[in-house]
Amino acid sequence: MTLHVNSLTIDSGDPKALAEWWAVALDWKIVAVDDDEDVWIAPGTDRSEFPGAIPFLFLAAPDEKTTKNRLHLDLVPGDRDAEVARLEGLGAARVDIGQGDVSWVVMADPEGNEFCVLRSHEG
After folding, report:
1. Which CATH number is 54's domain given?
2. Same domain assignment for residues 40 and 82
3. Statement to judge: residues 46 and 84 lie in one domain
4. Which of 16, 20, 78, 87 is most buried as measured by Cβ atoms within 10 A of its Cβ?
5. 3-state class (DSSP) for residue 90
């Protein structure tokens, strides 16, 4: 049996706006919009050029997020502090989910979905 991940699906109150935010944050592109509701982002349109990359699919969801995500992204930048500042400038916020004193920064996108910005793996 062959099984692979097709996408990471994210429920959203405004899929287009959240997809656009993540596309800017990750320097990805909007690669498809279906029925004005489903929006796909990826590093590019040809998956063979980005092996291992998993596209994100943003779907409309009527309910609001109410608890901490059980699944989240861990992002590794070249410079953690500079990246955190850039993401804050785009509208992300630092959040406290009880992580304590750690080497990463927990943030939330404009709809409150948590993600972590780790220290660089270099050095």
Report:
1. 3.30.1900.10
2. no
3. no
4. 87
5. helix
